[in-house]
Design brief:
Protein name: Dioxygenase
Family: Belongs to the DODA-type extradiol aromatic ring-opening dioxygenase family.
Largest sheet: 6 strands, mixed
Radius of gyration: 18 Å
CATH topology: Protocatechuate 4,5-dioxygenase, Chain B
InterPro entries: Extradiol_dOase_DODA (IPR014436), Xdiol_dOase_suB (IPR004183)
Cofactor: Zn(2+)
GO molecular function: ferrous iron binding; oxidoreductase activity, acting on single donors with incorporation of molecular oxygen, incorporation of two atoms of oxygen; zinc ion binding
Number of helices: 11
CATH class: Alpha Beta
Length: 288
């Protein structure tokens, strides 16, 4: 719910038509093909001030039937063993330095208990799954979903990232892949480049993209276009500018869950959104 419009006017302007369009979107049925898996660059709460970015995320959602549920893995929740959010849990306002209006935003989605049970059942036998009793979605989930599904009418379960190991995350994605056949949208949410400590004033102002961000994004785009999962998995050793683009890797590794959940791991990714925001790559892609 939007309670104060002024600092995020772009989102307030977007809502009326988007809510109407989203409400009339046909829901996934058993006669539809499996939903894709998606990697989102989720930005930060001020994404909701960016009319073009909001529209791009909404267009991505509108390009597919409305899911029966969403399982999202966000860079902002790292915990092992695997943990799942509570249905109806409180949103996590895991940020600072932004206008207070962002802490007034709400995103109350339908009961997700059954979806959480399906996710838990997909995990390996004998491995614990922690069902959190109060934690809701963090901003890596609710910010992009506010643009994609503005009526908050799809059940959502967020899963923690239990490891940074690409191959273990691919396996985690594989375990979620069958849910796509049931109308569940699997999303890895991060940021294709995330070198916040290395942004200068020109980058923040949108005047210039840092070379490390542009070079890493170009390398990733090439690997994604050919489905070169081994190159992506070896990013620490071979990606240009990686120590600047990802001083911590939490915003990159969700893409391995996206690949793991796809029908075929080694397949070209379809870029849905590209470009830069504050010098950081917005690259978002879809896999069948």
């Amino acid at each position: 719910m939007l309670t104060t419009a002024q600092p995020i006017k772009a989102y307030a302007d977007f809502l009326p038509a988007a809510r109407t369009a989203s409400a009339s979107t046909e829901e996934w049925t058993e006669t539809d093909p499996a939903l894709p898996s998606v990697y989102l660059s989720h930005g930060a709460p001020p994404l909701l001030t960016e009319a073009d970015w909001i529209a791009q995320l909404f267009a991505l959602a509108q390009s597919m039937p409305k899911p029966r549920g969403i399982v999202i893995i966000s860079a902002h929740w790292e915990a092992a063993p695997v943990a799942l959010t509570a249905s109806g849990g409180d949103l996590v306002y895991d940020f600072s330095g932004f206008h207070p209006v962002y802490r007034e935003l709400t995103y109350a989605t339908p009961d997700s208990t059954r979806l959480a049970q399906r996710v838990a059942a997909a995990m390996p036998d004998g491995e614990p799954v922690h069902q959190h009793v109060s934690r809701g979605l963090d901003h890596g989930a609710w910010v992009p979903l506010m643009a994609m599904y503005p009526n908050a009418d799809v059940p959502v379960v967020q899963m923690s990232i239990p490891t940074h190991d690409p191959h273990q995350l691919l396996d985690l994605g594989r375990r979620l892949g069958h849910l796509r056949d049931e109308g569940v949208l699997v999303i890895g949410s991060g940021f294709m480049t995330h070198g916040l400590p290395f942004l200068d004033r020109d980058a923040i102002a949108g005047i210039q993209v840092p070379s490390w961000s542009r070079e890493f994004d170009a390398w990733a785009a090439e690997a994604l276009s050919t489905g070169d999962i081994e190159a992506l998995a070896n990013y620490r050793a071979i990606a240009p500018g990686v120590s600047y683009a990802h001083p911590t890797v939490d915003h990159f590794v969700p893409l391995f869950v996206t690949f793991g959940a796809a029908t075929k791991i080694e397949q070209p990714a379809q870029t849905a959104i590209d470009g830069f925001w504050m010098g950081l790559s917005k690259r978002t892609f879809v896999l069948k």
